[in-house]
């Protein structure tokens, strides 16, 4: 029986009922926990949590995640810029360098900008005042309806609706769909103001794998950047918005924090093919981010077996 892949779903804020805390990612958690192998055993062992420390203080899990037994970290940067500190960023960096899979998602303007301190995957995320996109065309408001939200804020549709995405050739395994006529998935949850991601030019392992298009201006924007595993580092993804994974964006009946004022949609849950596509993306992410997890686990088991078979002996006495 295969040991389940251990996934940590983690926000960058402390528990808060009227915010995007981890309780609002229950659909995602249910999809992962419900995944089963051919023998009926769970594929994933899922832990879902918010920060357990205020901004600036070390979160007991994130600050030592490189010493944990997690195989994947799905990081939802829902903070206003203070969600991660230097100790936690360094530990997350070591986690990926050691083979761990990493998803880093954020949202509009400066929401989640603490991820910039991660380096690597953090470099793929552009904000209003942090790691600003060097392309002047990206430094413009795309969503004209929620006027207090500044760029980046690409309008892919209403919360609760679906958007059509375009895979970038060659089609990445994250977008594979054996059940579709063309072999790849096409739909994800929509959001009125998605963030801005790009492939860091200094990193040859990174590339944009999917794009979306604004419902307002027609502007094309990146949905996801994939970082291939290399030199022992695990696979990683930079996602344009954590709203691709939030309950409200899958089905508005789940409700949203009080500060969400945009009129909702509802086409995702009402369109079987779009809903299936979004669910498949989650399944593909979990599988691909596992990367070297099983290999690392096998190496660990072999090391333990060797230690058991050939225990260290006391050094010979010096005569």
Concise overview:
The chain is an alpha/beta fold. It is 20% helix and 17% strand.
Task: Throw out a few tags for this protein.
20% helix, disordered C terminus, 319 residues, alpha/beta
Describe the structure.
There is one protein chain. The chain has 319 residues and is α/β, with parallel strands linked by helices. Strands 2-1-3-4-12-11-10-7 form an 8-stranded mixed β-sheet, covered by helices on one side. The chain has a two-stranded antiparallel sheet with strand order 5-9. It contains 6 helices and 12 strands. Strand 1 (5-11), helix 1 and strand 2 form a beta-alpha-beta unit. It is globular, with a radius of gyration of 20 Å. It has helices at 26-34, 86-97, 247-250, 267-270, 272-290, 293-309; strands at 5-11, 44-49, 72-76, 101-105, 125-126, 162-164, 166-167, 187-189, 196-197, 206-213, 220-227, 236-239.
